[in-house]
Design brief:
The complex is a heterodimer. Chain A has 15 helices and twelve strands. By secondary structure, chain A is an alpha/beta fold. Classes of the chains: A alpha/beta, B alpha/beta.
């Protein structure tokens, strides 16, 4: 059982503002420790022309190392984390992040590698990437993969540019990409960046792609369809074979958004469902830490016919030399998408996770993720009905619209949940569900945690009737309460200045 | 080894609550024909002891800055990561948290990001920074897109001395858009002759500072010419130089971007790094990605939230300023801690060490027989060394002698196939520079 976000030991209830690092600054204090400059070196005056020389030092804070450590340690304590408690954010797959992966990524033979050095010096790193690529291609049913995309959205753009290159190679100019109305916002944003027009198709009463609407939208101007399966309502698109066939019929390509891959890994492969292009979010399915909003890793996999368009360079096992090397000679490549090789350190963590689990372990991830979501759903569905009937996959979307008659909204449920010791689910997404609460417990939460979360949600629904003010005034256990977001935008203050 | 908590008794109770016999029953929405029906062909699972040994042995098959003296550059540098920075940015409360959408549970990350934005503005002389982008290359791309939106023009002019990877990523990203990218010629001295560049109808100029050859571009002139042509000036700036070089804001830049990995993050074979982006307040509504802002909470206390979210993909969808969602927050937090660790005096010392020790390297290596420094002149922490040997080959041989140098420049600039980059950070000493010179001398003698 989790407690409310604990205040750090010995900290009084805050009546004053928590300081910003600049406010700890005292002239002459320092944390830094760097070598002296060698006496034989020319002076800056000799080296830097006057026009380039800094005349006023930047107004950075001056703090001692002790100040620095206390400040950021205490800041970290003002934050929820997977290592603190349950984090059932729908669509985010906040599962436990194994510690061994952190040790592995910090090894000098990974953390200390220079990205521009000769391939011969980094054979261990390249073998890791090669093995991980093979495993991820096997798990997705794809032929090849690039690790350059640093996150899912960058994977999306890479995939859409490959889609474009494919159609260009077929001598066709197509202008539209179809997206279901339940899709993540990154899909339409990536479509725009890739020079396409996003065409939205509605969901039907089942919460699935409306086949009639889709078929009506399909024509020779459609470059492709981006699909998250299971979708953001936590429902498996069971018409996927028909969708793929209809799209391929008009020459379109099927794009798999891997945001919800956690629920099918080892059970179903996008390639076997008819997908041509797949991105994965390794920071979701492969348990790498989310870092407060990043880094992630969004490798992009393609079927054989699209391989030649992958961003250069592509990893190659050179049989003759018995060495791994980067192949830069890729005339059809869409070009580079990252400064170097993508978020390598994250890929080391994902590899470590993969090697922990093996095939049975990966399948168990999907099984237990789906079990946990359905178990939680049955515990709360009578008080917080799901938007759509029946079995869900790794997450479900409940609606809190029934509480509106008490003057309580989904956000109030979320804030009250904080006081009861849980991070809230995702609220108000997907947009197609009124007062949406999108819940994804993940496979790493225990039955006790899920029972406790269900109990808390049931208690809150009861309180909505008996004591709605309790919900509307929540949370009361956190360092700050209901920050005024409108004020933040109106009185924009996005950097600290002495003037305030 | 897996990370699943359920005991057999838990499983039985949960299945009973669901009224099913087998977890597989829950997968009934998945059509039979598309199911895998076999085990994935992936390596077998390992226990922690065996896996830890495996990872060590894999890591031992590469050579990095722990094995070789690193003079390599080209956009990634062997800077010192202070112990305090590693410890603080490594805290699990930061590392294992999600995007701060619930501000009450995310004041730590939100405030750290607010501090990061403040520090980035301070070093760059700008007014509005975002919460980070993927890397230096994507920061350049986002700056270009920002300038295109602001000016409503469809042409940018990039210095030929821009990092070739940044230029390539910009071309890839914008390949589907109606945008012309012109490249300004590289002058004899390895910088751009900005007075001679045609900026008509340009949305922006892209000025690396220092440039790919380590040289200081005439940023002020580039900005002046850009403004005269109605264009914005995008400066691509190494943050480690900001203690000794005039801020790009003071030199007239409108948007400043950069690769921030050197601030507290290891080399890690090129990622995770962190893209910095800052601009003037007037452009803030065109900025891509997340921004943390200060506000008051229900009790009047200072609090931090994500702000101006109407720019972003989860609200604006197809009309968002960018598709970026997940960024590099943890790297940004490390950068914030590192800049606070340095302070103004530490940042100055850092810059001074780089610039002055690079000058030693230029002198010592330039004196080697048959060797010279190409593009000699005002620079920060990198030089272009020309030798009589094919540069790629020389890099390989020097690695055998314990030195990491390069990259060699022939891949991007065929006429510079005997040239390579040498970077000197605060970690390099005068005796290491002499050691490198001796190694090169031996190579020359043994050729």
């Amino acid at each position: 059982m989790n407690g409310p976000l604990e205040r750090s030991a010995g900290t009084r209830i805050e009546t004053e503002d928590f300081p910003v690092v600049y406010e700890l600054s005292r002239p002459g204090r320092r944390a830094w420790s760097l070598p002296p400059v060698d006496d034989s070196a020319p002076t800056l005056d000799d080296l830097i022309p006057e026009a380039h020389r800094r005349t006023t030092a930047p107004p950075l804070p001056e703090v001692s190392e002790r100040d620095l450590v206390r400040h950021y340690t205490r800041l970290s304590q003002r934050n929820w984390a997977i290592d603190v408690g349950a984090y059932p954010l729908g669509s985010c797959t906040m599962k436990y992040n194994p510690k061994l992966a952190e040790d592995a990524a910090a090894l000098p033979g990974f953390a200390g590698l220079h990205p521009m050095c000769d391939d011969g010096l980094v054979q261990g790193a390249l073998e890791l990437l090669g093995t991980l690529e093979r495993a991820l291609c096997e798990a997705t049913g794809m032929a090849r993969l690039t690790f350059q995309p640093a996150a899912g959205a960058q994977g999306e753009l890479t995939g859409l540019l490959i889609m474009r290159a494919w159609h260009t190679s077929q001598g066709a100019v197509r202008r539209k990409v179809i997206i279901p109305d339940s899709a993540h916002g990154t899909n339409p944003a990536s479509v725009t960046l890739a020079g396409y027009n996003a065409v939205e198709v509605r969901s039907d009463e089942r919460g699935l792609v409306d086949l009639a609407a889709l078929e009506a939208a399909l024509d020779e101007d459609v470059a492709g369809l981006m699909l998250t399966n299971p979708n953001t309502l936590g429902l498996f698109e069971s018409d996927i074979e028909r969708i793929a066939a209809a799209l391929h019929e008009v020459g379109g390509l099927l794009y798999y958004d891997g945001a919800n891959f956690n629920s099918i890994v080892g059970m179903v492969r996008p390639g076997d469902m008819g997908f041509d292009i797949v991105h994965l979010n390794l920071h979701k399915t492969f348990a790498t830490p989310h870092g407060g909003g990043g880094p992630g890793s969004g490798p992009l996999a393609v079927s054989e016919r699209l391989e030649r368009f992958l961003p250069a360079p592509v990893l190659l096992w050179d049989e003759g030399a018995e060495k791994w090397r980067w192949d830069h000679d890729r005339p059809d490549s869409i070009g580079r998408i990252h400064s170097f090789h993508g978020n390598f350190g994250i890929n080391v963590r994902a590899y470590t996770y993969l090697r922990s689990l093996g095939a049975a372990g990966l399948r168990a991830v999907a099984e237990h993720a789906v079990l946990n979501a359905n178990y939680l759903r049955t515990l709360v569905t009578d008080v917080l009905p799901t938007a759509h009937e029946g079995t869900c996959m790794h997450e479900f979307v409940s609606t809190a619209k029934g509480l509106k008659r008490h003057g309580v909204r989904g956000l109030d449920v979320a804030k009250r949940l904080i006081d009861l010791g849980y991070h809230p689910p995702t609220v108000y997404f997907p947009l197609v569900v009124e007062e949406a609460l999108m819940v994804e417990p993940t496979e790493t939460e225990s039955k006790e945690t899920i029972d406790g979360l269900a109990e808390a949600l049931r208690q809150i629904v009861a309180e909505a009737e008996t004591d709605p003010d309790l919900l509307r005034s929540a949370p009361v256990t956190t360092p700050v309460r209901r920050p005024d977001e409108a004020r933040a935008a109106r009185h924009l203050r996005i950097r600290w200045t002495r003037e305030g | 080894m897996d990370f699943l908590p359920h005991t057999p008794a838990d499983l039985a109770a949960m299945l009973e609550a669901l009224g099913i016999d087998d977890i597989d029953d829950l997968f009934h929405p998945v059509p039979e024909p598309v199911r895998l029906g076999r085990d994935l062909d992936v390596p077998p699972p390992l226990d922690e002891v065996t896996l830890a040994a495996h990872m060590r042995s894999l890591a031992a098959r590469s050579k990095g800055v722990a094995d070789l003296v690193c003079f390599a550059g080209g956009g990634a540098y062997d800077h010192h990561v202070p112990a305090a920075v590693r410890a603080l940015a490594g805290r699990a409360e930061f590392a294992t948290s999600y995007t701060p959408y619930q501000p009450e549970l995310s004041q730590g990350v939100l405030q750290a990001v607010f501090e990061f934005q403040s520090l980035v503005c301070d070093i760059y002389g700008m007014e509005a920074a975002n919460a980070s982008l993927y890397d230096g290359a994507s920061a350049v791309v986002e700056a270009v897109n920002l300038a295109v939106r602001v000016t409503k023009r469809d042409r940018v002019v990039a210095a030929g001395t821009l990092h070739p990877h940044y230029a390539e990523v910009t071309r890839t990203y914008t390949s589907a858009l109606d945008l012309d990218i012109d490249v300004a010629a590289i002058g004899e001295d390895g910088t751009t002759e900005w007075g001679a560049v045609d900026l008509a109808a340009a949305a922006a100029v892209i000025v690396p500072y220092p440039n790919f050859f380590g040289r200081l571009e005439d940023l002020a002139t580039a900005a002046e010419r850009a403004h005269a042509a109605g264009a914005l000036c995008i400066a691509v700036v190494d943050p480690t130089a900001m203690g000794i070089l005039e801020s790009p804001g003071a030199q007239g830049a409108d948007i400043v971007v950069g690769e921030g990995h050197a601030l507290g993050n290891p080399l890690s074979y090129g990622g995770p790094y962190v893209g910095l982006l800052a601009t003037k307040l007037e452009h803030v509504r065109q900025v891509p990605g997340r921004i943390a802002g200060e506000t008051l909470d229900a009790d009047g206390r200072r609090a931090f939230v994500l702000t101006l979210q109407a720019r972003e993909q989860h609200i604006r969808r197809a009309k968002a300023t960018s598709n970026v969602c997940t960024n590099q927050t943890l790297m940004a937090i490390a950068a914030a801690v590192h800049l606070s660790w340095l302070g103004p005096a530490g940042l100055r010392r850092l810059g001074e060490l780089c610039a002055r020790h690079t000058a030693i390297a230029a002198r010592v290596l330039g004196e080697l027989p048959e060797c010279s420094i190409r593009f000699d002149g005002a620079r920060f922490k990198e030089i272009v060394l020309e030798t009589p040997l094919e540069a790629g080959e020389l890099c390989g041989r020097l690695a055998d002698r314990g030195f990491l140098v390069g990259p060699s420049l022939g891949r991007w600039f065929p006429e510079l196939d005997r040239c390579l980059l040498i970077a000197v950070t605060e970690k390099r000493t005068e005796s290491e520079i002499r050691g490198l010179a001796e190694a090169i001398e031996k190579e020359l003698a043994e050729r």
